[in-house]
Every structure is written in structure tokens, then in C-alpha cells.
Design goal:
It comes from Nesterenkonia aurantiaca. The chain is 49% helix and 16% strand. With 324 residues, it is of the alpha/beta class.
């Protein structure tokens, strides 16, 4: 085995995922993003095969796999059972526990993880507790690793990084835009055509943009708005805001409030358009003070995260040492 060989890989069945990329960078792993087009069954089959092939030909010892989807975990367990990898770590996102598509498979997921000695990584205490209730003994709480980034020149628009998922209050966002007609609302992602047609003129839909364009939109936003009605969810948009020192509006959920404290502004899990409109106006009016709070919180979180990242490195090295 050459000195250049990297024993660890982080696998995500997406074209790109910021958390997966950040974890890979911090632990010195390769990051592999496997995206396929087509109907769901064929897409999963192709991704399953590519995962097996990629891991096998590169002789990885440890695989950190993002979940959902469940088939990604099953591919990595197959690699472990065949002896091609020695260590599997599952990065369990909230969708594993709360998305109706995957929640019904939760007992099966946990059973497979227990049976194959798969370590769980989650984003908060609530999810860690649920893993332990299912009998998982090795669970690590790890927030998205933060970088110390700078924001661009502040803009006057509200950025909504949305995916039009069932936990996002899209109708209320459109309603808030109507009420705050002098403020531009920018909604990323692939918006349904019917939504575009009924949205007011101050809503912009840039579509599914490149990573570079997204960074531009993010760094110059007046405020970042990340909303969910799903319990135990940590917002990727929130992590992106904090590492750039940007004002944030998010949902008033226990785990989110515990993490962001008074550095963020909050709306109800099921906000009204009026409430959301008021928070956007408040955030833009108090942008400087809110940005200063986020910078202070960032300094604290950058220190706190180092011990958790070191624990993850330890879990990876345990698996690597077992393979030798």
C-alpha cells in the first residue's frame, strides 16, 4: 500500500453536500459524491453499484456514509460483511428519524446498524438519545464542522435556501413576501412552476445554482432564513450563516435554540406570514448587531467543535487499526 493511500472515505449520494465535505476535510478523508439521474429504483441501483466499486477499488478501510437514503447504508454494510472495509460510520441526518419516507424503516435501520457494529454520528443530543434507545452503543454528537469565513458586502435581500421539502413553510414564505413588498426574497432550489406563477414580483427564483453562485448569494445576504417544522433538525443554512457571521432567522425548536441561543431570531415551527415578515424586517433593520452576535457565537463554536472532531478521528483510527 503506497504512502499516498487514504484509508477513509466520506460517501454521500448527492452531487454535493456541505456537511459531508466539511467532515471529510477535517478528518483528512476523501469525499465521494455519487449522483445519478433517472427513476428512483434505477438511480439507487446505480448508486449502490458505484459505491461498492469506488470503495473496493480504492481499498478504503473506513467508510463514513451519509443517511438517508437507507440503500447507501446497506451498500456499506455489504462492503463490511464481505471484508472489503473494516469500519462503517453512519452520519444519520434528521430525515432518518422524521422524514415519512424513511421513518418507517427506522427500526430496520437500527437493527442493521447494531448487527454490523456500525457507529452512529448525529447532529444533536435528541437524536443521540433516540439512537441509544434503539440499543446503539457507539453514538457521537457532531454539529457540522464550521469554517471561519468572511461575508461579502451586505445586501438587502433575505435568502431562503430551500428544497421545497414537506417540512418547509413555503406558502407562508410567499405570503410574507407579499407583506414585505419592499424586500427581495430569494428562494433557491428547483421551485415548482405553479409557485413561480403565483409569487409576488419581489420573490426571485435563481433555480438550482452552482456552488460558486450559491456562495455569492449566501455571502452577501442581508439575512439567511432556514425554517423547518421537523423536530430535532439542525439547519445547514444556519451553519452556513454562523461561519460567515450572517444574521439568521430559524424555527423555534429546542435543538436549534440550544445551539444558536440569542444570536438568531426565531419564528414558530408553523409560522404565520405576518410573523415571518416581521422577523425579516427586524433582521434587516438590526443587521449589524445580529451579525456581531453571530461572530461571537462562531468564536465559541469553533473552540467547542475541536474535541468532537477529535473523537471522530479516534473512531476512524480504531477501525483502521482493526484492519491491520
Amino acid at each position: 500500500m503506497s504512502e499516498e493511500h487514504n484509508p477513509t472515505v466520506v460517501v454521500s449520494w448527492l452531487g454535493y453536500h456541505g456537511r459531508s465535505a466539511a467532515i471529510a476535510e477535517r478528518v483528512g478523508a476523501d469525499a465521494v459524491f455519487i449522483e445519478e439521474k433517472g427513476n428512483l429504483a434505477l438511480r439507487y441501483l446505480r448508486q449502490y453499484r458505484k459505491t461498492i466499486h469506488t470503495v473496493a477499488v480504492n481499498n478504503y478501510d473506513t467508510v463514513v456514509v451519509m443517511m438517508p437514503p437507507l440503500p447507501a447504508l446497506l451498500a456499506c454494510i455489504s462492503l463490511k460483511k464481505s471484508g472489503r472495509v473494516k469500519n462503517v460510520i453512519a452520519d444519520l441526518h434528521t430525515g432518518v428519524f422524521e422524514d415519512p419516507k424513511w421513518r418507517r424503516f427506522l427500526p430496520f435501520t437500527m437493527k442493521r446498524m447494531r448487527a454490523n457494529d456500525v457507529t452512529a454520528v448525529v447532529t444533536n443530543d435528541s437524536l443521540a438519545a433516540r439512537c441509544r434507545q434503539f440499543g446503539l452503543s457507539e453514538v457521537l454528537e457532531l454539529h457540522d464542522p464550521l469554517g471561519d469565513l468572511e461575508a461579502g458586502d451586505p445586501g438587502s435581500y433575505a435568502l431562503f435556501p430551500v428544497t421545497y421539502a414537506n417540512d418547509e413553510p413555503i406558502d407562508q414564505i410567499i405570503g410574507a413576501a407579499r407583506l414585505a413588498s419592499d424586500t427581495t426574497f430569494v428562494l433557491t432550489g428547483r421551485a415548482p412552476e405553479e409557485l413561480k406563477k403565483r409569487a409576488p414580483s419581489n420573490v426571485e427564483f435563481p433555480g438550482f445554482v452552482s456552488r460558486e453562485r450559491y456562495e455569492e448569494l449566501l455571502s452577501s445576504a442581508g439575512v439567511v432564513v432556514g425554517l423547518t417544522n421537523r423536530p430535532f433538525t439542525m439547519q445547514r443554512a444556519g451553519y452556513e450563516a454562523i461561519e460567515r457571521g450572517l444574521p439568521l432567522i430559524t424555527s423555534d425548536m429546542g435543538d436549534l435554540r440550544s445551539y444558536f441561543g440569542d444570536a438568531a431570531l426565531y419564528v414558530a415551527a408553523e409560522p404565520t406570514s405576518g410573523e415571518l415578515s416581521e422577523r425579516v424586517t427586524e433582521a434587516l433593520r438590526n443587521r449589524k448587531a445580529l451579525a456581531e452576535r453571530m461572530e461571537l457565537l462562531k468564536d465559541k463554536k469553533l473552540v467547542e467543535q475541536e474535541s468532537r472532531i477529535e473523537q471522530l478521528r479516534g473512531l476512524i483510527s480504531q477501525g483502521t487499526s482493526r484492519s491491520r
